[in-house]
Amino acid sequence: MKIRAMETADLPVVLDLNQSELASVGDIDLDRLTWIVELADHALVADEDGQIAGFVITLATGTAYDSANYRWFEERYDDYRYLDRVVVSAQFRRRGVASLLYDAIEDKRPVALEVNSIPPNVPSLTFHVNRGYEAVGELPQTAGKTCTMFLLR
Ligand SMILES: CC(C)(COP(=O)(O)OP(=O)(O)OC[C@H]1O[C@@H](n2cnc3c(N)ncnc32)[C@H](O)[C@@H]1OP(=O)(O)O)[C@@H](O)C(=O)NCCC(=O)NCCS
Predict the structure, then answer these.
(1) pLDDT-derived band of residue 68, with 50, 70 and 90 as boundaries?
(2) Alpha-carbon 79 to chain mean position
(3) How many angstroms is it from 96 CA to the middle of ligand 1?
(4) Which of 93, 122, 152 to mutate to test the pocket of ligand 1 (most atoms within 8 A of CB)?
(5) Assign residue 49 a region: left if phi > 0, alpha if psi is -120 to 50, beta otherwise?
(6) Are 84 and 57 in contact (CB under 8 A)?
(7) Domains of the chain in sequence order
(8) CA 92 to the chain's CA centroid
């Protein structure tokens, strides 16, 4: 398993992975994914012999990103790395792929991100709490859903 920079040719596969997990990550199209990757400080894929097993996208502070969750951190913290989205393909889960992707982005701290807590995204909540992320707030979303906001300090 190799962690490498996301390339333009990867975007359709990354988009499919994102859209396969809309209960957990935000709905986007190819134009929006391309824009987010342009804003990103890291856009990485986990590559298993040419197959994309997962991806992560992070942003620095002070970008034009219009996500309400990013804005929540922008209003409260000065210098952090925002993890916008991470997905590991179902067939590659519980094999340490997300752990490898996080190892590649946690050099800059704090790392800020949100996880759905109502209804709960149990795998992601467990992953992040086990990795040392601390809940620092909550942000209601549309349709009665709520995210818990996390920081790795
Ligand atoms: C959350 C997610 C990224 C984890 O990816 P992963 O590659 O399976 O995670 P790892 O294999 O690195 O797991 C590391 C540790 O996290 C915890 N963990 C991960 N998945 C878990 C699960 N389903 N249940 C309980 N604990 C879990 C475990 O402690 C695990 O260590 P272990 O396997 O030795 O017990 C993956 O489940 C996923 O892509 N889910 C759908 C999209 C999503 O929810 N993204 C996050 C949005 S906030």
Answers:
(1) very high
(2) 18
(3) 8
(4) 93
(5) left
(6) yes
(7) 2-152 (3.40.630.30)
(8) 17
Q: State whether the beta carbon of 91 lies less than 6 angstroms from ligand 1.
A: no
109 neighbors 80 (Cβ within 8 angstroms): yes
Summarize pLDDT for 95-122 with one digit per residue, the tens.
999 999 999 999 999 999 999 999 999 9
* pTM confidence score: 0.98
How far apart are alpha carbons 40 and 63 in whole angstroms? 9
Give the Å distance between the CA of 126 and the centre of ligand 1.
7
Answer whether 42's CB lies under 8 Å from 4's CB: no
Rounded-to-integer distance, Cα 136 and Cα 69, Å = 13
Bond into 110 cis (ω within 30):
yes
